[in-house]
Amino acid sequence: MVKDIGELTKKLVQEKFGGIVPKWEKFDMKGTPVLFAKDKNNIYILKGNVIYVQKDGTGYMTCYKCGSDIQSITQIVSLWLKGYNVAGGSGKTKEREMPYCPKCEKEPKKHDVEFSNAA
Ligand SMILES: [Zn+2]
Description:
Blueprint: H1 5-17, E1 25-29, E2 32-38, E3 42-47, E4 50-55, E5 61-63, E6 71-82, E7 88-100, E8 111-117
Parallel strand pairs: 6-8
Antiparallel strand pairs: 1-2, 2-3, 3-4, 4-5, 6-7
The structure holds zinc ion.
Zinc ion binds next to loops.
């Protein structure tokens, strides 16, 4: 049983990359920093303690740990401004699709807040 992301990553490297650690690149997935690596067929996305496997050229992802289809939830993001003594809501919101594994991860919050500096 895979206990943590270190073991999971090792397993992935053994299975998919013949034991050679791939070049993990940083990527911002809708505000969540992730790492990704590619082989011939797939893209592997390291996010928190899970790895998503995406068949290259499709948007379809599965969980490397448990094999579940990756679901996504629509988050409403309130855009807040920083720059004064206190942060304040700008009154604006946006929506974003947040992927998650229904087995390995908690369902993401339906509401989130994003801060930006006041101009
Ligand atoms: Zn999973």
